[in-house]
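Box S2. Input/output pair 1.
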Amino acid sequence: MASSCSGRGVSESTAARARSVMPGGVNSGQRSIPGLEDLVITRARGSRFQDDTGKEYIDFHAAFGPPILGHNDPDVAAAVAHAARTVDLCGVGVTDAEVQLAEVLVDLVPSIEKALLTSTGSEATFHALRVARAATGRRLVVKFQGCYHGWHDSVSLNVISAPGRVGRHDPISAGILPEVLEATLVLPFNDEDAVRRTFEAHGRDIAAVIVEPVPHNVGCLLPTPSFLQTLREATQKHGSVLVFDEVITGFRHDLGGWQRISGVTPDLTTLGKAIANGYPIGAIGGRADLMDMFSSRPGGPAFFAGTYNGAPAVVAAAVATLTKLRNEPVHEHIFGLGGRIRTALRDLYAEIGVPAVVTGYGSIFVTYFMSGGVPRSYEDLLANRGDLFVGYRRRLVKRGVFELPLELKRSHVSYAHTDDDVDRLLEATREAVLETLQFDGVEEAGVARTMGGVTR
């Protein structure tokens, strides 16, 4: 029987203790960062977090995007505390706050007629594909190179692929059955002709198309004006289900998600991240006839369950977050800072003579170190200089400015960030890029691709 006293020396670091009892010392593969193996977070508030040495970082990583209001937002924290004093997880029936949240989702997101809550975005996308197959009786799913939709087998492939693995199945994990991979068709993002050809060949067998309307898991690939409409037309013509994975774009880019920006309404939408400012909750919503197929409605053929679905504390966090997004100038603030960052970075790279493409949308920004115009597909991103991308971010961290030092990862602005934070970002970026160029990437022991291929 394990004892609460480990017997380890008091001088042993938290990171070392973590590695002795947790594989790799972290609870997600995306947190295992070369050069930051000993990073231990002790405090987070507003636009900053602190490590166990007392060093403070201005956080532009923002946990891949959830804390849109900033860390430990006081209004969200107060709502969670109130819920904790009022009701606990009972696992039966429904609470008024769950109903409130579903009503808000129906009100805000164009595609959502009914909604269900999950604990993660991955669960939401899993259920979306399951119900699409139940509704259509079909086998195939279409996804796009560079899009990430969670950890489950049907979509765990072709995210950040090495050049030689683009154009064929590139699973991000071992242990996936070959027949599951074979049921997923992978297409280039923004390639309308490939979509039409695929539906001409396989339309009768395609249950669903799932897409990040903006593939932010490879930084930022903006859709061409007609691409999403082509998906809508193809799926309607062939009776397939169109799923927008708005786990990232939902609420961060618009209260109605990218579907309201684009004017293209999918059949199902999945949500997460910014919905609750960092608390673990996801959601799936869409057409009532599809949502009524879940077993939350007696007789529904698509099984749906989860002990922590609709847990009071996380629901309270979501309601408080969405209330603040609706009532305060959050998007005005974060879009203003995001626009300022992108413009200033373009000027900076032009001034120092570094070929770079600065892109993003609203509160998201990313720099690709490459020549040419704004990239439209993952294949375009293969020209990015990974050594410079990762190298300057490693040097940013040393300067107390945190952008995740992994290949192709985006950065975020929150409501808590200020113009002073942006000033520091720009100053540190100049220093970090020039220093990286001076050493020509020799300190970068390879470029970490945490969603690359697995040899089977």
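Box S3. Input/output pair 2.
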Amino acid sequence: MAGRETETDRGDVGLVYMFNLIVGTGALTMPKAFATAGWLVSLILLVFLGFMSFVTTTFVIEAMAAANAQLRWKRMENHKEEEDDDSSTASDSDVLIRDNYERAEKRPILSVQRRGSPNLFEITDRVEMGQMASMFFSKVGVNLFYFCIIVYLYGDLAIYAAAVPFSLMQVTCQRGFLSHTTGNDSCGVEADTKYNDTDRCWGPLRRVDAYHIYLAIFTLLLGPFTFFDVQKTKYLQILTSLMRWIAFAVMIVLALVRIGHGQGEGHPPLADFSGVRNLFGVCVYSFMCQHSLPSLVTPVSSKRHLTRLVFLDYVLILAFYGLLSFTAIFCFRGDSLMDMYTLNFARCDVVGLAAVRFFLGLFPVFTISTNFPIIAVTLRNNWKTLFHREGGTYPWVVDRVVFPTITLVPPVLVAFCTHDLESLVGITGAYAGTGIQYVIPAFLVYHCRRDTQLAFGCGVSNKHRSPFRHTFWVGFVLLWAFSCFIFVTANIVLSETQL
């Protein structure tokens, strides 16, 4: 009885981590995207993209199980060969087993399972997406996989590098931030105030100058971590998650209180298709978890109802996104919603307590700063893997200077040129996010099913096979990804032409 409870607890913890992974920075840019595209269009697109993300999540889980089966069967074969080498003669049945594996016969699998061995498709080894790509893709496919991952991580770092200085600029450039005066005219951002980057911040310094100063400080403080190996500690993860949920809960409660007191300023449109492009990218980015599934799913002890629990996770995430976004768009006017939603609560007429204003205003600074070095090291390691040659090593300068430099410099340059977080999130999600969330899982599951059938035969069933097992779903996901790519590109071109 105790063992079963432990397994259930571990499964719940794994799903909590998945919830925390998905609900991140993208959620803070979602309210403005909702207000721009209209509440009905936003709701429909959010639900549909959540469903599509769930489909591809089940694809990745199926591919993980298939990869585990291949690794487990190879280990069994290697162990059998070692036993045969120790014996003086090999029996005909032993030879037949090896031949059957090479010829993709199914009988040895079934006979092994009848002897009580663990299910071949049990997910026990953590097989990362890069390893799965190496197992199921050609060399060209592997290179395209790493290219997509690298572009996505660059977008992630650019968003982080812009969000922290932007939040600091918004908070510290408010009138009265450095003074001891009180009153609504001396603190916070007034409801009708519109600031430009050229407006004054402190003395002769403009707001954009303050942003660049903060960006330089951010780069100098966190950039050096790119040149070393860092680990995300358990306590840091717990602290970050706790701060995130306190911030989200406070924002939702404050928005509901204002709406309940009749102070809601928002009158969002039903639909505005001009804002769908950014909304699409933000939603895709906000549902991103496929690249981290091996680390989340593998430690879960009891996986019997894994698909149902993942589905429940997505339902809860959808409900949370809907609650956060709808309270935001009815609480604040659409043109007053900030790219980073927490900054809307830096106004004195919204939050009277200064400590709460500064906590929410500076919340992205704390949480994003802890993630930036980890993402940077991940990107650096992906660069190394992409150019790695079997048996070769990199010179010290290339390993310790070149790779960290090409990791750090591009996102900082992007952040220097723009702090438009909604566009950064939208473009990252619409392009690299589409590849990671749709294209890669679809090709992974297609090739893993083909390889599984060739290696084990038609009679062996993957216990973690996706509910969307028909080939139609693979084609539908790829068609949807291609359509989204064309739509977003056309929308960008048309928008630039009009400008």
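Caption for Box S3: The radius of gyration is 26 Å. The first strand starts at residue 200 and ends at 202.
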